[in-house]
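Sequence, please.
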C-alpha cells in the first residue's frame, strides 16, 4: 500500500491515523502507518510535552505527526475570560435545564472539567506548536483551514510537512496558494468538523484542484477496499480517525460510550453544531437533539459553544448518562462493531486492500482479453 507520499515519509502503508490517544498514535506508526496525535485537548503545554515524550519512547524511529486546531484569522488580545464573558446567560440556563432534566450530577468539588477544549483558540494552538517543534515530528496538520503563513514557515524551516483539511476544491486551492504541502480532502461522512460534499465526489475534485500536491482522502473510510477506492480516485493515502475509537489501545474512559459505539449503525450520527459551534459529525443523542431543536436557543459560534458546554460534557461522560452520552464519530461507525488492536485493524485493512486490487486486476484482465 505504497504511494509517492508514503515513500517520502518512510512508512510502509499509506494510512494516516488521526487520534487523541498517544497509545493509538504510537501503535499506528509501529504498524507501518503514520500516527497523528490530536492536540486540541491539551490546554497545558506540560501535558502535551509529557505525551510527546511518551510517543518518542514508544515509536522508536517510526515517524509521527501532530494535529492542531488553529484558526486562519488571527485575533489579538482576546483571553479565555474575554470569550467566556460573551456567553449569554440564556444559553447557560438552557444547559442547566437540560442537565437537570436528565438528572446529571455536578462534578465533585474541586474537580475541573476534563473536556475544556480551548485548543481552537489561536494562542493555545501556538503554545502547542512551540512544544511540538522541539520534537522530531514529520507532519503538522491543521484541522481548521490553513495555518498562518508564519506557522507554515516555522514548520518548513524544521523540515516538517504541513497538511490542512479541506471540505471543498475551493478550500483546497487556498491551501495550495499559501504553501501547504498536503491537502486532506475530508468528506461529509467524516467524524468531527466536516463539510457538505461526500468523499466520492470531493476526493477527485481536490486531486484535480491542487495537482501535483499530494491529497489524502478522509471520511467514510474504514476498510482496505475503501482505501483502494481512494487511491483509485487519485489520493496518495487515506486519513482515518473514527476507526481507532474502538481499538483496545484507545482510552475513552467510558465503557458505556464504547458499547454505544459498538452498537451504532452508520445512520446513528448527525452533523451538529452542539459540540463546538461548527458543524461536526457525532453520535446522535438527546443532547444533540436539544441543541438542534428550533425551539431551543440555538448554538453559539466557535469558540463560545465549546466553552459553554465543556463542563456539561464532562459531567455527562463522568456519570455515563446514556441518553446524552456521545462523541465525534463518522458514518463509518457502522463498521466499528468489535474491539480490536491497532495491529489487527491494520491486518484487516491490508487484506481488504489486497482483495480489492486483485478484484480490479481480474476485471481489467477480462476486459483486455
Amino acid at each position: 500500500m505504497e504511494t509517492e507520499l508514503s515513500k517520502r515519509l518512510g512508512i510502509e502503508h499509506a494510512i494516516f491515523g488521526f487520534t487523541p490517544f498517544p497509545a493509538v498514535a504510537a501503535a499506528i506508526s509501529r504498524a507501518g502507518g503514520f500516527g497523528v496525535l490530536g492536540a486540541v485537548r491539551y490546554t497545558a503545554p506540560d501535558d502535551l510535552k509529557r505525551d510527546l515524550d511518551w510517543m518518542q519512547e514508544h515509536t522508536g524511529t517510526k515517524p509521527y505527526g501532530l494535529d492542531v486546531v488553529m484558526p486562519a484569522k488571527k485575533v489579538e488580545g482576546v483571553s479565555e475570560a474575554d470569550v467566556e464573558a460573551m456567553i449569554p446567560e440564556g444559553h447557560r440556563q438552557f444547559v442547566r435545564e437540560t442537565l437537570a432534566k436528565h438528572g446529571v450530577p455536578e462534578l465533585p468539588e474541586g474537580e475541573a472539567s476534563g473536556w475544556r477544549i480551548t485548543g481552537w483558540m489561536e494562542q493555545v494552538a501556538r503554545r502547542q506548536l512551540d512544544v511540538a517543534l522541539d520534537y522530531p515530528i514529520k507532519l503538522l496538520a491543521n484541522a481548521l483551514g490553513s495555518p498562518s503563513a508564519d506557522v507554515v514557515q516555522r514548520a518548513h524551516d524544521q523540515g516538517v510537512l504541513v497538511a490542512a483539511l479541506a471540505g471543498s476544491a475551493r478550500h483546497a486551492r487556498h491551501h495550495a496558494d499559501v504553501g501547504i504541502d498536503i491537502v486532506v480532502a475530508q468528506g461529509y461522512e467524516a467524524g468531527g468538523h466536516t463539510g457538505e460534499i461526500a468523499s466520492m465526489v470531493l476526493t477527485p475534485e481536490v486531486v484535480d484542484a491542487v495537482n501535483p500536491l499530494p491529497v489524502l482522502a478522509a471520511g467514510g473510510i474504514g476498510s482496505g477496499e475503501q482505501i483502494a477506492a481512494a487511491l483509485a480516485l487519485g489520493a496518495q493515502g487515506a486519513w482515518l480517525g473514527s476507526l481507532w475509537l474502538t481499538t483496545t489501545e484507545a482510552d475513552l474512559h467510558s465503557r458505556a460510550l464504547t458499547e454505544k459505539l459498538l452498537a451504532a449503525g452508520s445512520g446513528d450520527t448527525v452533523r451538529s453544531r452542539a459540540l463546538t459551534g461548527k458543524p461536526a459529525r457525532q453520535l446522535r443523542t438527546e443532547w444533540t437533539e436539544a441543541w438542534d431543536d428550533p425551539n431551543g436557543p440555538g448554538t453559539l459560534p466557535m469558540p463560545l459553544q465549546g466553552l459553554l458546554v465543556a463542563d456539561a460534557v464532562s459531567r455527562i461522560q463522568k456519570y455515563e448518562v446514556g441518553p446524552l452520552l456521545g462523541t465525534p464519530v463518522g458514518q463509518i461507525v457502522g463498521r466499528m462493531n468489535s474491539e480490536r488492536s491497532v495491529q489487527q485493524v491494520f491486518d484487516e485493512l491490508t487484506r481488504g486492500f489486497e482483495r480489492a486490487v486483485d478484484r480490479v486486476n481480474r476485471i481489467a484482465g477480462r476486459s483486455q482479453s
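The radius of gyration is 20 Å.
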